[in-house]
Amino acid sequence: MTLPDAEPLLTTWYLEMRDPAALDARPLPPTLAVAECEIPQFELNRFLYQLVGAQWQWTDKLEGDQQTWRALVESDAHRTFVAWHRGAVAGYFELYRPDGRNVEILYFGLAPGFIGMGFGGPLLSHALACAWAWPGCERVWVHTCSLDHPAALANYRSRGMTVYHEEVSGD
């Protein structure tokens, strides 16, 4: 008798940093430039989400309410940053602070072709520094899961973030 394949377990980790002094920063390499998109462009965020997230099965935003997503991107509580390497989009991150105190790294990642180049730690360091530089920030948090890049959780921890909650689903 053959048993049906079991659904794989999905683990989600929630991490936080409560003190900017905890940041173990890695400097941006000279060939990696990061710019904030000071003029919101929903279509750019959608493109970046697809570019970076396709390999990690980011699909929830593509299937959801596009007007709600647009409103989030265009709100004063949201900021988008793009990383460039030699003129190409190397990655991006989005910060979201709806309560004026807790900044979520809403999305973070590298574009295909830029993984393994040593950009992950420096870009995450920059994301954390930008979050802490946002006036009123008291805490930075993020969540990641077992579908993400195998080094994602270690990168968050290496930069000084700590796990405060873990969920396992799919059993």
TrEMBL record:
Which Enzyme Commission number(s) are listed?
2.3.1.-
Pfam families, sorted: Acetyltransf_1
The N-acetyltransferase domain is annotated at 23-171
At the top of the EC hierarchy, this enzyme's class is transferase
An annotated Gene Ontology molecular function: acyltransferase activity
Keyword Transferase (UniProt): yes
Q: Does the keyword Glycoprotein apply?
A: no
Q: Which UniProt keywords apply?
A: Acyltransferase, Transferase
Q: Which PROSITE patterns match?
A: GNAT
Name recorded for this polypeptide? GNAT family N-acetyltransferase
